[in-house]
Amino acid sequence: MLFFISLCFIIQSCVPKAAITIYFSKYTDTDIYLIPIKRQVNGNELYKKALEELIKGPINHSEGNSVLPETTRILSVEKKGSILEVDFSKEILTDADKILILSNKDHWLNIAIEEIALKSIVNTLTEFSDIKAVKILIEGKSNGKIGGIEIENFWGHSSLNFNFERDESVIR
Fold first, then answer.
1. For residue 56, what are the domain limits?
2. Which of 75, 82, 120, 136 keeps 20 to 30 A from 92, CA to CA?
3. Mean pLDDT across the stretch 141-167?
4. How many CA atoms lie within 13 A of 158 on its CB side?
């Protein structure tokens, strides 16, 4: 038994670490943008690990703001040529109130937060040189409803009916 535990420890420590870049949001009174953050993860399933780090959120305030609800799960990640198809759990929609600012006077900010969340996902995944675009699914679907929420409208303003490409104009 001790040999088995020691072997497991040795094998775990042999898994190479990989440096990844993920993107969190920052706000000013007049702007919202993404900042790159470096993280170290185990070297397997890097696309999924990058998304998991994004969902975990910032370690401290200097890393910016969370862009996805921490209750979100990644159901699958599938590479189709240079397109990465990511299927998120329904919590990315149903728990959006944990990210959005629920005030009518800040409606413009919620639109910007929604857009920056999508760009955070896409820019994080297109950091990998073999990924050129990202297709986002929720519970395996890109349209219809989950819990009364229209999937194709994401958090209310952005269509999920197409593949998203990298947008470096929002990175500072």
1. 16-170
2. 82
3. 88
4. 18
